[in-house]
Write a structure and sequence with these properties.
0% of the residues lie in helices and 60% in strands. The strands form two sheets. Strands 2, 4, 5, 6, 9, 10 and 11 form a seven-stranded mixed β-sheet that branches. The chain has a four-stranded antiparallel β-sheet with strand order 1-3-8-7, with no helix packed on it.
């Protein structure tokens, strides 16, 4: 099994910054795509940012220029640097990973438990 553990969430004032981290652990061979998703109360979960194993990134329009996703392949870790936070960014942020788990299980998608980000006005 594979586990994704997020950290770094918290309460911050508008205009502030937070850095989220997600570490993948368990039995797998490689991670193709890692990303961050968020879900606010009453809303659907949405993609925030993704990054491939080659370093190609994709961002939601709402966070472009403010958030930066990165990864450390040696540590199986993905980061989300969030600057210029706005109250609209308040949500539970989830780590996601597409993982090659071997011939028996193939490629699978895993999710972390989520970390709360609250931005006050």
């Amino acid at each position: 099994q594979v586990q994704l553990v997020e950290s770094g969430g918290g309460l911050v004032q508008a205009g502030g910054s937070l850095r989220l981290s997600c570490v993948a652990s368990g039995s797998f061979f490689s991670i193709n795509v890692m990303g961050w998703y968020r879900q606010a109360p009453g809303k659907q979960r949405e993609s925030v940012a993704t990054i491939t194993s080659g370093g190609n990134t994709n961002y939601a329009d709402s966070v472009k220029g403010r958030f930066t996703i990165s990864r450390d392949n040696a540590k199986n870790t993905v980061y989300l640097q969030m600057d210029g936070l706005e109250p609209e960014d308040t949500a539970v942020y989830y780590c996601n990973a597409n993982i090659w788990a071997g011939a028996s299980l193939g490629r699978r998608v895993y999710w972390g438990q989520g970390t709360q980000v609250t931005v006050s006005s």
